[in-house]
Amino acid sequence: MRHGLVLSFTGLVACLLATALPSSARAGNLLANGDFEAGNTGFTSGYTYVSTVDQITAEGEYTVGSGGWLSFGDHTSGHGNMLVANGSPNANTSVWTETVSVIPYTEYVLSFWGASVNQSSQSLPVLQAFINSTVAGNSLTLTQQGGIWLQGSAAWFSGSSSAVTLSIVDLNTAGPWNDFVIDDVSFTATVPEPTSLALLASGVVVVASRLRRGRGLH
């Protein structure tokens, strides 16, 4: 009988762990197409979409792809897709936006990589993350030389929220030279929130107590 109780205890602890750890922490990146390998899908943009890199001719246009007048590869593999944009002249225009479900009371991190396109830019793109329309993390000023990938990130605590809207905006509204690429956008949970861990601990204590009381059973 004691052996059966131990097995039941082990199973219950595993169940409690699965409940306490946010599903996002187990699933990894919550974004649908953060590396853009699926093309122009899984996100929205305030920019105007064109089919290829060579068709980007005006401010506020973007595409998903590679090649054309780009002189370097994407961040993921060097030969895949990335989001390519000509900076918008309109302030607070999101080049990338996605809404995802989240676990309440959980820490998350939004991360992305960006690079200038021009080899000697005279007007540097400045990428800023927004979470629920609020500035999140520090702005990321890209380099004058094109093709140098830099990482931006922002931490966020979900509180009672069950969904969140994430955006990336180029704060530079100047027209000439303001061209950039974005790749490998991710949104991941970091650690279980304290309440979940407390519930797990209390559940283990209750089960252990019942096991002690049941040791005399045969």
From TrEMBL:
Database matches in Gene3D superfamilies: Galactose-binding domain-like (2.60.120.260)
This protein's name: Ice-binding protein C-terminal domain-containing protein
Alphabetical UniProt keywords: Signal
Record-linked InterPro entries: ConA-like_dom_sf (IPR013320), Ice-binding_C (IPR013424)
Residue ranges annotated for the Ice-binding protein C-terminal domain, each copy included: 190-213
Keyword Signal tagged: yes
Record-linked PROSITE patterns: PROKAR_LIPOPROTEIN (PS51257)
SUPFAM superfamilies linked to this entry: Concanavalin A-like lectins/glucanases
Domain of life: Bacteria
Signal peptide: 1-27
Biological source species: Aquisphaera giovannonii
